[in-house]
From TrEMBL:
This is Cytochrome. PROSITE patterns: CYTOCHROME_P450. Residues 1-35, 423-483 are annotated as: Disordered. Belongs to the cytochrome P450 family. Residues 466-480 have a biased composition (Low complexity). Residues 1-21, 450-461 have a biased composition (Pro residues). It comes from Streptomyces alfalfae.
Length: 493
């Protein structure tokens, strides 16, 4: 099959539909649109059409018909993120940015516009900024965080437990990560409803997004000023004190990155895992039978419903080839997390249980691989465990088919998860803090099971260095007990 070239400036194919033609979701040059009715109705189906038509890398159009490649193959995505000599996150080299077709008013500008922070940097500058972030993360007291995740979970459950019903998205999943991250950053007192609303606003790009961003930045700049005056034992102080010598603006930009990245992704993950635990008979039966751990449910969810479905994007530094396509210097590429996770080459049977396998793309890979993944996993593992312990009779209040999602190409959120349970009294969550253990540092692999062999064969499609492999640094230590059991042990002292 011949792959139609995206309508790079200068294309004047006489057979192409007129620009803006809504027929079949095709845009100029007969290239499929990743926006508009077809994409909104069934994005996963659209990715499969693209895979059938073009293979693992397909030309598509973003809003305003900006051409870009979407990477659909698992190994092609990994190759891209692991080859910084050919691909960069620095969007300033993207042709669409240079020629102004993806300008500041583009709907996706907030996610691709270059900013002075580690997610857009490369080489020595990336190492400097990312080093400060990972250094500050290594200083986090991981046992203390486990206690706080438990405590905040139980505080949130105290608010709903007497009602016998709740929407777990708005009353639980959207709050727990923000409470935990505000604590990690050193601003528990700033956690409030407005912080959650602002974060949600900024991501949705609503008309109040600019005001919400201003509010979050004001709070963060205030925190930076206080810690600059007097360091404390928190993530913000570690960032400031790091030898990388970040400026105040850089510290605030990285605090915002960490807060928003973790809020959005972890809230999605929590909601998705709860949905899976409540609706999928395999998990329910296995959980109660003790065979399936919550961390395994988390990993399955990261394969099936990755919290970020795609990222815009990576940019070609030189002419090259990917998945059989000719990529030119300056081309943009979408990191296709959701389509890469269902690539039939690595998952011929999508119903197969992945049994804790961690080689999904949810946290990307290569130099920009998510450094906060173990915190995200810990919030989901411990939050879901603690919820099931407090509300063991929790059940979905509507039929699964009535659940609704809000989707963009970047992510897919569950709109609500209404549940019911027997009303019960609140618990005194401050009564049983865990014993004051010494502060081991830097070990974030808190509760995941040992990595097991993939459920499905993973044949290499490309040379060995491109073949799917477990995410770097994610090998889990042996876990003698499930997190559920360890939680019970902790709770009982
Ligand atoms: C389930 C939760 C999470 C998911 C699915 C997730 C996913 C991702 C993804 C896909 C990237 C982009 C990698 C790339 O550019 O190729 C990323 C980057 C990043 N994430 Fe996460 N993340 C999560 C939680 C967190 C948390 C809790 C933190 C902080 C505590 C965090 C901090 C970051 C940072 C700082 C980056 C930029 C790294 C760099 O460019 O070097 N993330 N994350």
């Amino acid at each position: 099959m011949t792959t139609p070239q995206p309508p790079w400036p200068g294309t004047d194919d006489p057979l192409a539909p007129p620009p803006g033609c809504p027929a079949h979701g095709l845009g100029p040059g007969g290239v499929r649109r990743l926006h508009g009715p077809e994409a909104e109705a069934d994005l996963a189906g659209l990715y499969e059409k693209l895979r059938a038509e073009h293979g693992p890398v397909a030309p598509v159009l973003l809003h305003n018909d900006v051409p870009i490649w979407v990477v659909l193959g698992h190994s092609e995505n990994l190759h891209m993120v692991r080859t910084p000599s050919q691909y960069t996150r620095d969007s300033r080299i993207w042709r669409a940015v240079r020629d102004g077709s993806a300008g500041p008013d583009h709907p996706l500008a907030p996610v691709f516009t270059w900013q002075p922070m580690c997610s857009f940097a490369e080489g020595a500058e990336h190492q400097r900024m990312r080093g400060a972030v990972t250094g500050a993360m290594a200083n986090i007291d991981h046992r203390g965080i486990r206690r706080y995740i438990n405590r905040y979970t139980n505080l949130l459950l105290n608010d709903i437990c007497q009602d016998g019903q709740a929407d777990l998205v708005s009353r639980f999943a959207e709050h727990l990560p923000m409470m935990v991250m505000c604590h990690v950053l050193g601003m528990p007192e700033e956690y409030n409803e407005r912080m959650v609303q602002s974060a949600r606003d900024m991501i949705k790009g609503t008309e109040t997004a600019i005001a919400s961003n201003a509010y979050v930045m004001e709070v963060l700049m205030g925190l930076v000023a206080r810690r600059r005056a007097q360091l404390e034992e928190d993530f913000t102080s570690s960032l400031i004190a790091h030898p990388a010598e970040l400026t105040d603006d850089e510290v605030a930009a990285h605090l915002r990155l960490v807060l928003i990245a973790s809020y959005e992704a972890t809230a999605n993950l929590l909601a998705n895992v709860l949905r899976m635990v409540l609706t999928d008979p395999r998990f329910r039966a296995q959980l109660s039978g003790g065979q399936m751990t919550v961390p395994e449910a988390v990993e399955q969810s990261l394969w099936d419903e990755p919290p970020f479905s795609a990222m815009v994007g990576y940019f070609a530094k030189q002419d090259t080839q990917l998945g059989g396509q000719r990529i030119r210097a300056g081309d943009g590429l979408i990191l296709g997390i959701a389509p890469g996770n269902v690539d039939p080459v690595v998952r011929p049977d999508l119903a197969a249980n992945m049994r804790g396998n961690r080689s999904h793309l949810a946290f990307s890979g290569g130099p920009h691989e998510c450094p906060g993944q173990d915190i995200g996993r810990a919030i989901a593992d411990i939050g879901v465990d603690a919820l099931l312990l407090r509300l063991p009779d929790v059940e979905l209040s509507i039929d699964e088919s009535q659940l609704r999602w809000r989707s963009t190409i970047l992510s897919r959120h569950l709109v609500e998860l209404p549940v019911h349970f027997a009303p019960r009294p609140p618990q005194d969550v401050m009564a049983r803090p865990a014993p004051n253990a010494p502060r081991p540092r830097g070990d974030w692999h808190v509760s995941s099971p040992p990595v097991r062999p993939p459920a499905a064969p993973v044949p290499p499609r490309e040379p060995a260095d491109r073949a799917p492999a477990p995410v770097a640094g994610s090998a889990a230590p042996a876990a003698p007990k499930g997190s559920w059991q360890r939680f019970v042990t902790w709770w009982r002292g």
